[in-house]
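agent> fetching stored inputs for the L-homoserine docking request
agent> found them:
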Amino acid sequence: MKEINIAILGMGTVGTGVVKVLKRNESLWVKKCGSRIHIKKILVRNINKDRGFDLSPEVFTTDWQDIVNDPEIKVVIELMGRIEPARTYVLEALKKGKNVVTANKDLLAEYGEELFEAAKKAQKDIYFEASVGGGMPIISPLKESLIANNIQEVMGIVNGTTNFVLTSMSKEGISFNDALKTAQKLGYAEADPTADIEGLDAARKIAILASIAFHTRVKFCDVYVEGISKITNEDIEYAKELGYAIKLIGIGREEDNEVEVRVHPALIPITHPLSIVDGSFNAIFVKGDAIGETMFYGPGAGQMETASAVVGDIIRVIKNINMNSVGNAVCTCYDNKAIKSMDNVYTSYFLRLCVIDRPGVLAGITGVFAERGVSLASVVQKNYMKDTADLVVITHRVREKDIQDSLEIIKKMSTTKEIVSMIRVEGME
Ligand code: NAP
Ligand code: HSE
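agent> prediction call returned; pasting tokens
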């Protein structure tokens, strides 16, 4: 019976899940891909740590050369995360004729082009379904099932940790820090959770999705990013009162050969399906000229959920090996589109301004907005303190630069105590 040797780099949350899935369903692999799958090597940092698996000690190594220089290993699964040494190991593995499966969005969002070039040169596969959406399929659907479309937009929740934190704050009223600790315990967060909280993880994912959707290379540095660290329980309560949920949203949009890519918290109307995507779940809307609108929904993080996507890719590569068809997973960025400046993005805004509570203050502020063409949808005065009040404003769709310029002036007005929050509003009709 045919056996394919594979090696795993990194044995943390996802690596452990991959070994569990491979062992749990061992008897099925021959039927599903025509071969037994043999884990020949696993790269770890600490060889003495008990991994809780029935694997012989010779499987574990601390020397990656044992893997790249072993001609019997046909597939390398990179689950270490971050850029280096993952980038070097993946490039070397491809050079040495191995196929690669990775869940590493950091690497793909910065060095995607280099990796695809290397795979093309080596005529080997590189698959990365788990890099976006955890267990929720989105890369293959975009690359294959929706290829007939001109995609206009990809938009949704692409980070499980922040969605878990915001849901816990909103539904259970617990603090940001307590919610984050639980997300870490459940294996959702990155090794450094700042990447989740500050929106960097989501930015990497939206860069990968936009590159595939719009056939142009979008890198991490092209994405406008704001995280959720400034969102307070108070913001969430105000939003709820107005009929919105707060979510960290990733948006990629193409218009007239220009691509808009951004990640930031947003108020989402409670009538919009994204507002009820809770916990570590992810959901992505894709708009295309033939499909119209379609939504993908599923577990965005977690050990077994992510392992499901990684093992799916392993099976795909092994099938390709068995059919002599590796090397077809080529880069699809055949265009070169400009990235839209954030200044020129149009959306609506939720603003909380703490102002002195006296006649004429509201008129002064609305005057500043009016001068810059910022049209207001609603203004409510709330939360009266001794001589101040919170002005809660929702705007119509306006240009980002006009809002930012207005707020610069309002901030300096003697009647303004503080601009407490500025959160964009998405998903309105
Ligand atoms: P993790 O728990 O931190 O695991 C990473 C593992 O790699 C750790 O065991 C670490 O070893 C090992 N490692 C790091 N550098 C190494 C090196 N130079 N040599 C040998 N081993 C090394 O991370 P994870 O959550 O499993 O994530 C792995 C990848 O999957 C990342 O790219 C992540 O973004 C992606 N991903 C994660 C999820 C999720 O839900 N967790 C979902 C989708 C994608 P030590 O234990 O010794 O530090
Ligand atoms: N840290 C990531 C998240 C893991 O919370 O979504 C999945 O990519």
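agent> quick read of the result: Residues 303-322 form the longest helix (20 residues).
agent> awaiting further instructions
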